[in-house]
Amino acid sequence: MYNYKSDATQFLEDYLEKHPEEAKQRLKNRGILWDVELNPEEEAGYQAAKLPKKPYAYQPD
Predict the structure, then answer these.
(1) Do you know which InterPro entries this protein is assigned to (predicted)?
(2) What's the pLDDT tens digit per position in 1-55?
(3) Is residue 56 domain-resident?
(4) For the chain, what is the radius of gyration of the CA atoms?
């Protein structure tokens, strides 16, 4: 099997092994950026504000 790991991957794995507290911080930071609850009212407003796309974007009107 293919077992190559880049220098960056090896560094990160080694660092996380030596600093286990960083794994908790990574999960916390991930939650800030990605695990966000969307407001249904705002989301509905975004959907209502969308303009229809033209079938061919480069054709002049």
Answers:
(1) DUF3460 (IPR021853)
(2) 789 999 999 999 999 999 999 988 988 898 888 888 889 999 999 999 998 888 8
(3) no
(4) 22
Would residue 15 count as lying in a domain?
Answer: yes
Distance CA 36, CA 43 (A): 13
Question: Is 57 inside any structural domain?
Answer: no
Amino acid at 40: P
In this structure, which amino acid lies at residue 47? Q
Report field, pTM of the whole predicted structure over 0.85: no
Query: What string of H, E and C letters represents the secondary structure of 25-51?
Result: HHHHHHHHHCCCCCCHHHHHHHHHHCC
